[in-house]
Amino acid sequence: MSITTKDRKSIVVVRKFGHNHKLVQKLERMSDLPSIFGSTVATFAVVYSTATMVFVYTVAREHFPQHLVDGVEKYGRKLVNFAFPYSQITFPEFTDAYMRRSEAFTAIQNYLREKASASANRLKADALKDSRSLVLSMDYNEEIADEFDGIKVWWTSNRNHPRSMQISVYPGPGVDEKYYKLTFHNRHKKRIIESYLPKVMEDGKAIGQDNRLRKLYSNNPSKHWNGFNPKWSHVAFEHPASFDTLAMSAKRKKEIINDLDAFKEGREDYERIGKPWKRGYLLYGPPGTGKSTMIAAMANYLKYDVYDLELTTIKDNTELRRLLIDTSSKSILREQEEDDLDPISKEVKKETEDTTESKVTLSGILNCIDGLWSSCGGERIIVFTTNYPEKLDQALIRRGRMDKDIEMSYCCFEAFKVLAKHYLKIDSHSLFEEIGQLLGKTDMTPADVAENLIPRFKDENVETRMNRLIEALKTAKEGEGASRPNEKRKRGCNTRINKREKRNIR
Ligand SMILES: Nc1ncnc2c1ncn2[C@@H]1O[C@H](COP(=O)(O)OP(=O)(O)OP(=O)(O)O)[C@@H](O)[C@H]1O
Ligand SMILES: [Mg+2]
Predict the structure, then answer these.
(1) Ligand 1 atom at minimal distance to the Cα of residue 419
(2) Distance between CA atoms of 473 and 442, rounded to whole angstroms?
């Protein structure tokens, strides 16, 4: 170093700085070396060297003209960058003084959680709000290395300890300030910012979505809405239904799953053709054929929330719109026709409801489905369920609003086999043939079949349960024969999916 100064000590220190740069370069090449070691030494070198630069700068300002001092400063910065060519980005937990949690922090936390359990040595266990089980994450001061397109980066989890024992509802002095720090080589800055970080955010959000406890929302009567009473109340959505346990033919099931997959993966297609990312299903069929079970299976398959829309407690279209805007994406909105409600539910509703009649009109619903609601955040499914498809207005079910009809009907033999597999834990039995024949001649819903297969007492054996079903089928057949002797029944498997073009409900 050729700086002529009276202070010998500073020249010696600058030489050390050069030595540290070589060390950092060496550490960088040794990518197999635990990086915490590399970055700790490098950080130490930089802190040490930076302190020295500050000292040199102070001394120089006192003894040298300004243009020389500026030169030293510029050269010093270059040296620091040369010695530690890494950039760091910090992601604090809170975005502001109002305890608003940073979305970026949460996404990174989710993203690193999976990597942490595989590679970090020290983990923290938490039962997070809205999460179903214990979650493990990297402990403070722990480091995780990640790789993206051959670029190596390091994440550390840190916190600033409270500077005083003050108790505060806001983060700040007295409250832990947690943050993640990302370190990467300067030469990758552009790709890290433009490609890696967006990927971390996207993956982290998707992981959060998958792990969160999903919710079943129901709308509150609009007369109760105010700052304290929200439009929607929710409970945890923990319905156990799945496509595996849903009684219907395997072919139909596959068709519905494929349709849902295409929708879920279809974001870019919808964007490209300029269509709101939503899909409408019309589920129709007699009570007990599995319409509600199907919605639960869909929600579990897609990992969506469910909004149960009760139109009778909404005064008018404006309120309906406000209600729908308040729903989130990745959700299934279920609207049930009032005629479908059983007599008891109708009575309860009459007693609890306001006497003023709902002025929600069909066109109000349609406008919401077509317009505003569709456009505020995509990935929404709307399902209309009805026991009386023939009563639905054609405007509601025209193509583009309801994209697919799914008919749920009586239990066929294939559907019975699904129920037997789950209720009786058997795939075949000598009584299956008789049951199959009876199902072919009798209208019995999957709900009634299931009711006969469920044990009435502990350890009730499989034959007894199947014989009970046989008896029930025989009784139902006799009853049907007596009440509807001339009716020509069409029986297929319990689900039929109709393309809109082919179906004519009226
Ligand atoms: N297809 C099915 N697969 C499996 N279980 C079924 C099926 N259909 C009915 N069940 C059983 O019967 C019960 C009632 O079914 P569900 O509530 O889904 O019928 P629904 O068609 O929605 O009736 P409603 O028209 O009265 O609303 C379910 O809890 C489930 O146990
Ligand atoms: Mg139902």
Answers:
(1) 4
(2) 7
Domain ranges of the chain: 8-84, 88-211, 241-408, 413-483
Is there a contact between 27 and 41 (Cβ–Cβ < 8 Å)?
Answer: yes
d(CA 174, CA 176): 7
Ligand showing the shortest atom-to-Cα distance for residue 291: 1
* AA identity, residue 352: T
Alpha carbons 385 and 292: distance in angstroms, whole number = 8
**Three-state DSSP class for residue 332:** strand
- State in Å: Cα 419 to ligand 1 middle: 12
Q: Give mean pLDDT, residues 293-304.
A: 95
SS3 sequence of 374-433: HHCCCCEEEEEEECCHHHCCHHHHCCCCCCEEEEECCCCHHHHHHHHHHHCCCCCCCCHH
Give residues (CB < 6 A) around ligand 1.
245-248, 287-293, 340, 387, 408, 446-447, 450, 494
pTM of the model: 0.69
Which ligand has the minimum distance to the alpha carbon of residue 406?
Answer: 1
Q: Are 20 and 49 in contact (CB under 8 A)?
A: yes
Ligand nearest to the CA of 408: 1
Helix, strand and coil in the chain, % to nearest 5: 50, 20, 35
Tell me the per-residue pLDDT of 342-354, one tens digit each, with 9 for 90 and over: 555 555 555 555 4
pLDDT bin (cut points 50, 70, 90) of residue 8 is very low
Beta strands in 223-271 (DSSP E): 232-236
| Structural element, H or E, at residue 262 | helix 250-264
Cβ atoms of 137 and 109 within 8 Å: the answer is: yes
How far does residue 359's CA lie from ligand 2's centre (Å)? 24
Q: How close is the Cα of 286 to the center of ligand 1, in Å?
A: 10
304: which 2 tokens? Answer: 């969506």
Q: Residue 293 C-alpha to ligand 2 middle, in angstroms?
A: 7
User: Measuring from atom 25 of ligand 1, which residue has the nearest CA?
Assistant: 287
Distance of CA 235 from the midpoint of ligand 2 (Å): 18
Instruction: Pick the atom of ligand 1 nearest to 494's CA.
Output: 1
Quick: pLDDT tens for 324-374. 888 888 899 998 765 555 555 555 555 555 445 666 766 677 777 666 555
Q: Which atom of ligand 1 is nearest to the CA of 293?
A: 18
Q: Cβ-count burial of 228 within 10 angstroms (0-12 exposed, 13-18 middle, 19+ buried)?
A: exposed
Q: Is the ipTM of this complex over 0.95?
A: yes
Which CATH superfamily includes the segment(s) 241-408?
P-loop containing nucleotide triphosphate hydrolases (3.40.50.300)
Digit-coded pLDDT (tens) for 63-75? 667 777 676 666 7
Give the distance (Å) from ligand 2 centre to CA of residue 287: 7
Ligand 2 ion: Cβ-proximal residues, 5 Å cutoff: 291-292
